[in-house]
Structure formats: structure tokens, C-alpha cells
Design goal:
675 residues, alpha+beta, seven-stranded mixed sheet, five-stranded mixed sheet, 16% strand, disordered N terminus
């Protein structure tokens, strides 16, 4: 017989070493990618270190640029003058009557709106100049040059209700009049609790010599925003049509949150006519809360430890509370509590990410991609913090890499989700195939049970009919004493006894199967001899076995040792096998032989009957399977005999097998191990 031995997969020392070192390799790769991003983003500014601007300090608010030859190649940075106009929206009409205040009082006189004035002297020609105003924080701005409005961002007003904030810079174009540009800047900022309107620096350059081309900030913003939206759409497609995994949905929503944040931060939103400045101000903060919520939910798939769940739920609860504040509270309030919200995120995210990476220290493929993206984004954030705190020790342009790292993060998480969804889909397919197989098996079993009930009904009816018929005719003979034949009565009583034994055997088989399925079939083993069991079984069940004019021969090797077995159950096996042989053999020979083979006693029951077709071999030991036709040509048997024999023999530690050839007889063997 074929024997199947399963053994666990052995892990070699090299494989164990590689598995243990997977996480450090992933972290090292993330560090290298971060360094590459730093070089790609910051190296051009480090190489091209020439200062392309000239800082000009005015005298009494007048900035003379007429004698500066470098203006054809460089821009002039005009610092705020010594005077400004707090809580005043100065216009060309009120310029002569509005009273300025010294900028030395700026910190003491906090103003939500103010005005600045730059009088710039340039060569007397018709050149057009580019004017760029840079402020700290988002403002509403309006610019007048020589009495005319040349640019406006948002709507500065003397009230918060009338003010619409915009961005922190404004670029416009103007020409001098008689070599003079009288510039008035109105700015307003009501939305931040800590700062009011700020003083702006003015960058001015001759438009004819201004460097053109290249990607602008808003163009880069549109590109990144489009990449995040594409990733979100792709993941939503996978979620809706394929996997329905929550992690995919959560990261798709996180990508949309990143697209929203990139749209606001890159000033790309200024090209969207349906979005107001005040709404964009709120959405800038809302994008952080939404991103935190969805990323926390996404990373929840990797969380196992209790303290990580606590950090996750705290971050989500804090972000939800802050999002509600953004929707229902005034901007001064939600900007005031921003520092507490940021502190909460730091307390949750830093130990949470560290703990998450530690729990995935032996990651699979999808976890490696996820850890790689998380590590790149985390290292980029640390790099930008160090950059803005001037810890690198150089004065080159402070170009952050977080946006590029966020793109790497999205790509890495998308790859991780693809791997996860492939695994989930494969598991779902396997489960579907398994369910289909189980369904087919259950349908087959149900059909077999139906056939079994029909067969059992027929089989039970046959001995009952025989018993009833012989009992009635025997009773009729008993009523006529003169015609009573003792030999005939004896023959009929033997037939009744045989059918009763047959009926008892079938009922016992049904009960035995029930006990086996419920695990209640106990074996009462003791030391016994197989020859005694065989002779007792044959003598006890002889009326049932002596049918179809067959001869029964028994051949047992002398001196066989005792076996440890349950005599009643082994007798049941022998009776079942002989009964099968009798049913499928007519006018033939049935042989029972016993011999010792190595450490087993082997019992062999053979007949020269109809035999078994080869295609039926795989089903012989199944429940409810029956041989379709007996020697009489009728369906017969309950289909339980061989199944019960197999279970009994296996519980004794032995095995059972069949050898047969169609129309040439059948041999059934079973072995019992010696003690």
C-alpha cells in the first residue's frame, strides 16, 4: 500500500538569517531612497549657489533702484520700510491723510488688517516690472500702483465677515510713471489666533529679464494631486469590483485626503473657481485630520498589540474631534487648539510607528512594501524638520522633500495593497473552490443517503417477508398434526433464524455507523486468538452464511500468537466479509485463511464470485456505497459493511485492502498487529 508521510518544512540556517535580517534591509533601503530624494530635490539649489537677488533697504520708504546695474540679471528684495499703517486700508485717495506708525511698534500693535507703502525709483522707460509680495501666512491682499489696482488676492476688508483670505504671496505686473512706482499694499488676516496681518517683503524684477520656463509650484501641485487621485481611483476600483477589503478602501480615502492637501498647499486650488479662500483655509486643516483618520484605519490591519490599538483609537478620536471643531467653530479657535492636536498626534504617531515596525520585524512581502513606504515618509519628515531648523549648516534654498516622499509612500502602499489583494483573491478563489467541492460532496452524500434509505428499506423488507411467510405456513402445518413433518419444520425454523440474524446484522450496521460518527464506538480489547474468533463467528452465523449453495473452507496456520483485539468487533468484520462473499457468489467456494506476516496477523477472505469492476475500487470503503447487483441480479446491501470493517480494523491499528478481478472473484485482506 502507498503511504503518505507529511513533514514540516525545514528552514536552513541561511534562510533563518535572511528572515531575521529582512527588516533592517527594508529600513536601509528606505534610508537610501530618502538620501536620493534629498540629492534630487536639493542638489540643484546647492550647485547653483549664486544669489539671484539683491536686498534693498529704503530711506523713508523710498527705494532707489536706478543705479543698480544687476537688476537686469537679479531681482531686488525690498524689505518693509520704517513706517506702516495698522488697522488702515489705505487707498491712493487717502494716502495723504492716513497717518503711519513706526514698524518698531508692530509687535505691540497687533492689527488684523494694515497697509504698506513702497515708493520705488526705476529708470524712466516703459518697461514692465514683476512685483511679488511675500507674507508669513495666508492673507487677503490688494495692490495699487500709481493709483490703479494691479493685483488682488482674496478680498481685504475692515471686518472678518467681509474678508476672504488667499495665499501668502501675490504676483502682479506694473509699469513706472516718470520713473516712479508708488505702490500701496493692503493686507488682512483675521483667521489665525496668534498672528494678525503681517508685513510683506516686495520682490521686484524687470519682466524682460525675468527667467521663464520651468515648473511652477502650482504645476507641481497639479501633478502630485493627479497622481494621488489616480491612485485613489485605482484602489476604489479594486475595492468595488474585486476584493472589498477595508484596508484598500481606507487607503483610497487617504489618497484623496493627500490630493486635497496637495491642492491647498501648492496653491493649485487658486485655479478652481468654485473654491473660496475661506473654505480652502479650513480645508487645509481638515486635510490633516482626514489623512490621520484614514491612515490610522489603514494601518490598523497590521496592529496586533493592545497599546498600538490604544494609540490608533486615540489618534482617530482626536482627529474626529478636531474635524468637528473645524466644521462648527471659528477659525481663531481651531487655530488656537492646533498645537494641542499636533502634540496629541506626535504622542500617538511616533511610538505607534515604532511599535508597528517592531511588530512586523519578520514581515511578509506586502508588509515589506508597507514598512518601506512608512519609513521613507518618516525619514523625509525628520529631514525637513532638521532643514527648517537649519541643522544642516548651509544657507541654500530650503526645499522640502516631504511631497516627493509622500508620492513614494503612496506607491509603496499601493504595491502593498496589490500584493494583499492578490493574496485575498487567491484565498477567496481557493475558498470558493473548496465550497464548490464541499457542495458537490454534500450533494453526493445526500444522494447516497437517499439511495441508502431505499436500499435499507428493501433489505429490511426482504427478511421480514421471508420470516412472516415461513412463520404463517409453519403455523398452518402445526394446525394439521397428521401432516406435520419434523424435518420440514426444522428447515423452516432455520430459515427464519437466518433471516432474523440477517435483519439483526443490518440494524447493527446502522447503529454502528451512528456510534462511529458520534465517536461513541469503544473497543474492549483483550488477548485472544484469531482462530477462535473465526470458528465462533462461523458457527454462530452459519444459517445466514450458508446460502447460494457455496462451500466454506477455513485454513489457519498452526501456532499463531494471540492478538490484542475486541473479539466481538473482529467477529463482526469476519461476518461482514463472509456475508459479502456469499451474496456475490453462487455455487462457488469461499475461503478463509489466516497467517502471520512479520509483526501482523493477516486474515484473507476470498471468493470466486462476480468480482468488482476496477472503476468501483475508489468507492468501496465509503459510507452508503453498495455493489449494484448481487448474484441474484438485484440491488442489495446497505452500503455500510466495508465502511464499518475499515473503521474497526483501523481502530485496532491494522489495515484493510481488496484485490479483485471482474468475473474472477474477490479477495479481502485485513491485518491486526501483534502486541
Amino acid at each position: 500500500m502507498d503511504k503518505y508521510i507529511s513533514s514540516g518544512e525545514q528552514v536552513t540556517g541561511i534562510q533563518y538569517f535572511k528572515n531575521r535580517d529582512t527588516l533592517p534591509i527594508v529600513i536601509l533601503a528606505a534610508l537610501l531612497i530618502t538620501i536620493v530624494l534629498m540629492l534630487l530635490v536639493r542638489l540643484p539649489g546647492m550647485i547653483d549657489s549664486e544669489d539671484k537677488s539683491i536686498t534693498i533697504t529704503g530711506e523713508n520708504g523710498i527705494y532707489d533702484l536706478t543705479g543698480i546695474a544687476e537688476l537686469e540679471e537679479k531681482s531686488a528684495i525690498l524689505l518693509p520700510g520704517p513706517l506702516y499703517y495698522p488697522s488702515t486700508l489705505m487707498t491712493p485717495e487717502t494716502a495723504k491723510t492716513d497717518l503711519p506708525v513706526s514698524t518698531e511698534q508692530f509687535d505691540a500693535l497687533r492689527a488684523d488688517y494694515l497697509s504698506q507703502r513702497f515708493v520705488v525709483l526705476v529708470p524712466d522707460n516703459s518697461d514692465v516690472y514683476t512685483l511679488t509680495f511675500n507674507l508669513s501666512g495666508r492673507h487677503a491682499m490688494r495692490v495699487y500702483v500709481n493709483g490703479k489696482i494691479v493685483g488682488q488676492a482674496g478680498n481685504p476688508s475692515a471686518t472678518k465677515q467681509g474678508t476672504e483670505v488667499w495665499e501668502n504671496n501675490l504676483t502682479c505686473y506694473a509699469s513706472p510713471k516718470d520713473g516712479v512706482m508708488d505702490i500701496i499694499l493692503q493686507s488682512a488676516q483675521y483667521y489665525h489666533y496668534r498672528i494678525g496681518a503681517q508685513l510683506a517683503a516686495l520682490s521686484i524684477q524687470n519682466t524682460a529679464f525675468a527667467a521663464g520656463g520651468g515648473l511652477t509650484v502650482d504645476m507641481i501641485g497639479f501633478f502630485l494631486m493627479g497622481a494621488f487621485v489616480c491612485a485613489a481611483v485605482l484602489l476604489l476600483f479594486i475595492y468595488l469590483l474585486l476584493s472589498h477589503t477595508k484596508a484598500t478602501l481606507f487607503f483610497a480615502l487617504a489618497c484623496l485626503s493627500m490630493a486635497l492637501r496637495e491642492c491647498i498647499q501648492s496653491q493649485a486650488w487658486t485655479h478652481l473657481s468654485f473654491l473660496s479662500g475661506n473654505t480652502s483655509f479650513m480645508l487645509e486643516y481638515m486635510s490633516v485630520a482626514l489623512l490621520t483618520i484614514f491612515l490610522s484605519l489603514y494601518l490598523g490591519q497590521y496592529i496586533e498589540k493592545q497599546f498600538l490599538h490604544a494609540a490608533q483609537y486615540t489618534a482617530i478620536a482626536g482627529s474626529l474631534a478636531y474635524a468637528v471643531c473645524l466644521l462648527v467653530c471659528d477659525s481663531v479657535f481651531y487655530t488656537a487648539i492646533l498645537k494641542y492636536y499636533q502634540a496629541l498626534l506626535v504622542l500617538c504617531i511616533v511610538p505607534g510607528i515604532a511599535g508597528l515596525i517592531w511588530t512586523m520585524r519578520n514581515p511578509n512581502r506586502e508588509q515589506r512594501a508597507a514598512i518601506f513606504g512608512i519609513a521613507v515618509f518618516f525619514l523625509a519628515a525628520v529631514s525637513d524638520i532638521m532643514l527648517y531648523n537649519n541643522l544642516f549648516g548651509y544657507q541654500h534654498p530650503r526645499t522640502p522633500i516631504s511631497e516627493a516622499a509622500m508620492l513614494v509612500f503612496v506607491v509603496a502602499q499601493t504595491v502593498s495593497l496589490f500584493l494583499m489583494n492578490n493574496r485575498v483573491l487567491a484565498e477567496a478563489k481557493d475558498a470558493e473552490e473548496k465550497l464548490a467541492a464541499e457542495k458537490d460532496s454534500l450533494e453526493t452524500l445526500n444522494r447516497m443517503k437517499t439511495e441508502f434509505l431505499g436500499n435499507v428499506s428493501h433489505e429490511l423488507k426482504t427478511p421480514l417477508t421471508v420470516m412472516s411467510g415461513y412463520a404463517q405456513t409453519t403455523g398452518q402445518l402445526a394446525e394439521r398434526p397428521g401432516e406435520l413433518d419434523g424435518g420440514e419444520v426444522t428447515r423452516r425454523m432455520k430459515l427464519i433464524s437466518s433471516e432474523a440474524e440477517r435483519l439483526s446484522l443490518m440494524v447493527g450496521q446502522v447503529l454502528d455507523v451512528t456510534r462511529m460518527e458520534e465517536g461513541r464506538m469503544a473497543m474492549e480489547k483483550r488477548s485472544c486468538h484469531i482462530d477462535e474468533i473465526i470458528h465462533t463467528a462461523v458457527e454462530t452465523h452459519y444459517p445466514m452464511l450458508n446460502k447460494n449453495a457455496n462451500r466454506l473452507e477455513i485454513h489457519i496456520d498452526p501456532g499463531l500468537p494471540a492478538v490484542s483485539a475486541d473479539p466481538a468487533r473482529i467477529s463482526q468484520v469476519i461476518v461482514n466479509l463472509i456475508s459479502n462473499a456469499v451474496r456475490f457468489t453462487a455455487n462457488g467456494l469461499i475461503t478463509i485463511s489466516v497467517k502471520r506476516e512479520n509483526k501482523n496477523i493477516v486474515v484473507h477472505v476470498a471468493d470466486n464470485g462476480t468480482g468488482i469492476a476496477p472503476e468501483r475500487f475508489p468507492y468501496l470503503f465509503r459510507r452508503y456505497y453498495h455493489k449494484e447487483k448481487a448474484g441474484s441480479g438485484q440491488n442489495t446491501g446497505t452500503g455500510l459493511g466495508l465502511y464499518i470493517c475499515k473503521k474497526i480494523v483501523e481502530q485496532h491499528g491494522g489495515s484493510i485492502w481488496i484485490e479483485s478481478k471482474e468475473l474472477a472473484g474477490t479477495s479481502v485482506f485485513f491485518s491486526l498487529p501483534l502486541p
